[in-house]
Specification:
homodimer, alpha/beta, seven-stranded parallel beta sheet, 8 strands
Chain lengths: 250, 250
């Protein structure tokens, strides 16, 4: 796993709590290799562990370095997150694009890292010039300051999506299976037969319109068989039939 | 703006600080309409305002409701975020897909809302059954618990990306323009001419290989003219030439 996920490099993080929350965000996104450059506080303190919310494993395994250069020494591609515009001549990637870049490189066994600066100031230019690219997280330009763990979360989330191809997922229906059309139409016919006595059902043209409306209503929702049974029960109840309503054969 | 962004509905949030952080995440993502169902603490307290990090406007404008039903009364499409699997028969959308759904509906003036549950328990089934769809944020299934503001941030971020179409952005080069190829090749030729005396340059075959290597090195990085000048200066210095090196005409 380690070889196929990017390292997360936190440069001079100030608060242990933020390092803990960053570990939680890493765990959320299936990342495991945390590297700390000169952390101001102890990243294995009780505060940090509590903030990590069961991701303390990442904190205990984190490696500490005296300089950014040492922290990235064994990596082959590094991207630096910044909120502000920088005047450095370097490709600026959206978080999504950077995640895809990293994922592709990792698949080719190129070791990648994602770098985050101190809470208050972000990365300085000396750190940024060590990176191959700058990551810019697309956010409201009038209010784009994120806390450290949120920046880690957003970039990590984009990476996680590349691994699972889940972002593109359209939708799945939950457990249950939509009823076969025949069963839905049988239900509609049944309902229509019960409406024969209703005023609107007596005039041919109006009847046609109402039938179409009703069928639209009951087909749109992808009803399950269970839900059809519920609807039969409702009708039964509304009609004041105490015994099970006689349903059409499915 | 308000009509074209989804409302964020926080159901029974427990801590004012979390509501403040959710406001900050909303502001990050260009969202403005916060709705609170039975918040346990005062969402305009000093704690909440501090946590909002300059997004207190959202807190002051937040509307408070006694029930989820009232909070979503005027909306036309609502999606509920859940971490756990639910047995409800409802479409489950990825955050990205849900954001696109909401963006499309909002463009057709359909009022949309995104619903988030209390910190400890998440939304209960009674709230979820009010929603048109469930949002599932794709995250490490072994560790998918997020704090409230992070859930708001991830879903809001996906919505923001639909508005800006920034997610797909490939890359932009920062301010400066890459040098014209002719200038880079002239630099290479110049360097090659300086290497004529070097051992490897004397053997034809080896020379060819080295030229290709060098040209690859200097074309890959999209050097700017300014950077070429720097390189000329470096060569100048290395050769121990105190006066400006005579460069080839560009």
């Amino acid at each position: 796993m380690s070889a196929l996920t990017p390292s997360i490099i936190l440069v001079e993080p100030q608060l242990a709590e933020n390092v803990g929350m960053a570990a939680r965000a890493m765990m959320n996104c299936g990342l495991c290799d945390m590297r700390l450059v000169n952390p101001r506080e102890d990243h294995t303190s009780a505060k940090a562990v509590a903030a990590s919310s069961n991701a303390e494993e990442i904190l205990y395994n984190a490696k500490v370095y005296a300089s950014t250069e040492e922290a990235i020494a064994d990596l082959q591609w590094v991207a630096a997150t910044t909120a502000r515009h920088r005047d450095q001549t370097k490709a600026v990637l959206s978080a999504e694009f950077a995640a895809h870049e990293a994922a592709q490189k990792l698949q080719n066994n190129i070791r990648c890292g994602l770098m985050f600066g101190p809470e208050r100031t972000g990365l300085n230019n000396r750190d940024i010039c060590l990176a191959d690219a700058i990551i810019n997280i697309p956010l409201n330009p009038k209010h784009c300051s994120l806390n450290l763990s949120q920046a880690v979360l957003l970039v990590g989330y984009e990476f996680y999506k590349t691994q699972k191809d889940l972002g593109k997922e359209e939708f799945v229906t939950n457990h249950t299976t939509p009823a076969e059309k025949a069963k839905i139409l049988k239900f509609c016919s049944y309902l229509e037969s019960l409406l024969e006595d209703c005023g609107n059902f007596r005039v041919g043209e109006k009847r046609e319109k109402m039938v179409i409306n009703l069928r639209n209503i009951f087909t749109r929702g992808q009803l399950t068989e269970q839900e059809l049974n519920t609807l039969y029960g409702v009708i039964n109840h509304l009609r004041g039939t105490p015994r099970p309503v006689k349903r059409p054969e499915a």
